[in-house]
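#dry-run=false #mode=assembly
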Amino acid sequence: MSTLDISQRLHERVRAFARGERADDFEGLALAIARFQAEASPGFARLVKSRGGRLERLADVPGVPTDAFRLTRVAAHPAELDVARFETSGTTGSERGLHPFRTLETYESLALAFGRRALVGFRPGPRVVVSLAPAPGEVPTSSLGMMMTFFQREWDGRSLADGSFDRELAARWLFDEDGLDLAGLEHAAMVAVRRGEPFVVLATAFALVGLLDALGGRTIAAPQETCVMVTGGFKGRSREVQRDDLRRDLARAFGIPETHVVAEYGMTELTSQLYEGTLPGAELQGDPDVLLEPEWLRVEAVDPVTLEAVPAGEIGIARIIDLGNVDSALIVQTEDLVRRRGAGIELLGRRPGATARGCSLAVEAWLG
Amino acid sequence: MSAAGGALDDDALRRVEALVGAARLVADPSSDFGRRARALLVESTGLSAENVELALTECLETAPSRAELDALIASVPVAPRAHVVLPANVFIAAHRALALALASAPHVFVRPSRREPHFAALLAAAAPNLFSLTPQIQPESGDHVWAYGGDTSLDAIRASLPPDVHLHAHGPGYGVAVIDASQITAETATALAADIVPFDQRGCLSPRAAIVEGTLADARRFADLVARALADAGERIPRGRLDAAELADARAWQDAHTYSGSVIAAGPGAVSVAENRWEPAPIGRNLLVMSSDALIVALQARGADITAIGVTTAEHRQRLERFFPYARIARVGTLQRPAFDGPVDRRH
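#status=ok
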């Protein structure tokens, strides 16, 4: 079988696994993907070799650091087969990374499957879906924009004026470099009210802070059945807001309970996402601040130095095993601090690094 | 405002010379201070005994010239009282920090690092009544404070000071080496390793990247030589203990660079090669080597963080002095011995 054939077959097995067809178990499928990547990706093969060269258990599989996506191409296929290249948002002073995709079929299938379980609540039926994000454009470079497009098309699929769906429709993409289209958001909310349908707002935390600033304490006339999906952090933006404060202020702005504000955790380097399970009527149910994994993704909290799993309930950095990453990196080693809690994980910010430190390392505990 | 001439300068000079005398005692392995320093500093710094010895005998400024001392005194304002919040990661930095404060004021109060309190305490014991150690500085209006720390710590200090207290804040920085393609030799690599090894690369004079003005092949050739030189240096002067954050940074960096295919083992650390993009390698005797045909542009990309530049040719020195007048520019192999003429970090 050619590399392409093996990849294609693995994609099919992952999608079947996600549909609940349990011909594979998680570990077996993960190891099959890891072995495929070790064959097809010289970079991953080098990383495996540096850890002893064995791929017999899932614990043998090294995570690919997120930085690798900035340094080099992380893919098991040649660039000419790319159908999409999603860019990481980057942090101040750093270059952007790329996550190339050979097919978006698995990405779409997994994003819709778990997004539906987290964000489609209240009751069945269509809903009005808008995004506080820029339109993805003809050649999408944002995985988040791509995911939002899927949600808009699948859960709404109409224009706001009852015409046909157009993914580039400006009325659905309400935040770009020119700022927030508050009037557009209010119009969309009004359409949902008029249609008697739930309203879904997909947004970055940064855009939502912009919304709160623009509202200046005013509220939006939105349906009671409004869900606000919040994703991402602030990454050096002008104003940071605590997660709890943002949730409270958004609930007040939309006139909805705080449980309708649902956090999403995703990364460009991943194919799959995690969500809170707080939305009433949604299939996914869990405590606030607990991010729940889909069956095809696991997060392990590991020691930042040894990369060994830490005891349950202790804080470690997230080692994310995403079966959706068939053609890139099965395991992504992040620097995000997490702790297992109940059925999911708590996200606790970034590991404080030593790299930025120079000759002025420590005025330790100056205030304490 | 610099120190005025005459009696004031003489007093300042006497104070600084007394401190240098204390440093000589601590550096002397045959003195009681020297023996205690070697025992205590290995424990508190985590450096190997060989690296502590290197710092005390090769890096600590024990014989500055009169011209250097005059320049150091002229570099600071006159103050009624000076306060120093010391760094932890380069223990001998306390010496220069104290010299600057003593050049500035007759009354000096020093808050040592909690992790490495011994070097300042040894200097205080070797020069009784020259300055006071304190667990917490309490500056008053008109006083000057020299503080060394990360941006967050410095912000906290700034916010905590009374009005009219002058803060001299020295934030994080690192060194970079600039290698002319004609100077890619084992000798240059050995010299660069000698700049990297002291303090296990924690200092703002420690190179964490080398930019080769040449091709990618030139960079690879130099990276191989530096990796060998660092491995050899590691045999003579073992790397000490890294803290958890440093180890985690090194692990993440080495994994990412292993994936990208550019990492070379270099004794206790590693060297990696990049083309036209760079960022500092993590602490712990690691180095990123980059090729560039646009040297100034490459350096300017991270110019605000660069405190020292090692060079291999006079032409590079002249060119870089124009663009980076604040940086300590010196021949590769001598970066850890800057003139004792003012702050090491001259970015402010």
